[in-house]
Amino acid sequence: MSVIVIEFVTLDGIVSDPAGSGGTPTGGWAFRYGPEAVAGDKFRLGSTLDDGVMLLGRTTWQLFSRIWPGRDDPFAARMNAATKLVVSRSLTDTSAWANSRIIDGDLVDVVKREERDVIITGSLSVVRTLMAEELIDEYRLLTFPTVLGSGRRLFPDGVPQTDLECLSAERAGAALLVRYRRAAAPTAEAAPVQIQP
């Protein structure tokens, strides 16, 4: 099982309001580049989307539940068929989007018990909770050539150092899709040789 974060991100690390649905002054920055940068399986999820589970915060789920059920393209069919776990204390009804259910219990415990790959889309509070517990295995970041200067960053000030390994980088329209995974822990080194005088 892997926990995979997928995010639209600016060059200065902003992930908030890429579609403009949040009504922020700089919102909609990712969608200004046209559908070739954002449509379809831009994060190269492939069978992970079909066999894994999506994990969404309430705000992201509510946005997606208004968008995806009304679409009928092949990628939308896969999104609609995917199992979706929703993190919310206030949401009570998930019938607006098929195969959705509110998680029962603590988020960290739910993720630790999950046997399928977990895909987190948007949902910055969910990402940060799992980041703090060092449960994120991979980041797939679609980086756009935009600098906003303000907004919510994926990696805020004060997060502990995290070493990542680049798995791949490819152009996606005006954006760049880069996949990073958590770097392997350094292996234990042999004890230093003692030199006797």
Task: Provide keyphrases for this structure.
197 residues, eight-stranded mixed beta sheet, alpha/beta, Dihydrofolate Reductase, subunit A
What does this structure look like?
With 197 residues, the chain is α/β, with parallel strands linked by helices. It has a single domain, classed as 3-Layer(aba) Sandwich (Dihydrofolate Reductase, subunit A), CATH 3.40.430. 22% of the residues lie in helices and 25% in strands. It contains 6 helices and 8 strands, in the order βααβααββαβαβββ. The chain has helices at residues 35-38, 47-51, 58-67, 74-81, 107-113, 124-132, and strands at residues 3-10, 53-57, 83-87, 100-102, 118-121, 138-144, 164-172, 175-182. Strands 4-3-2-5-1-6-8-7 form an 8-stranded mixed beta sheet. β7 (164-172) and β8 (175-182) form a beta hairpin. The longest helix is centred in the N-terminal third of the chain and has 10 residues, at 58-67. The chain is globular and about 35 Å long. The model has no long low-confidence stretch (mean pLDDT 90).
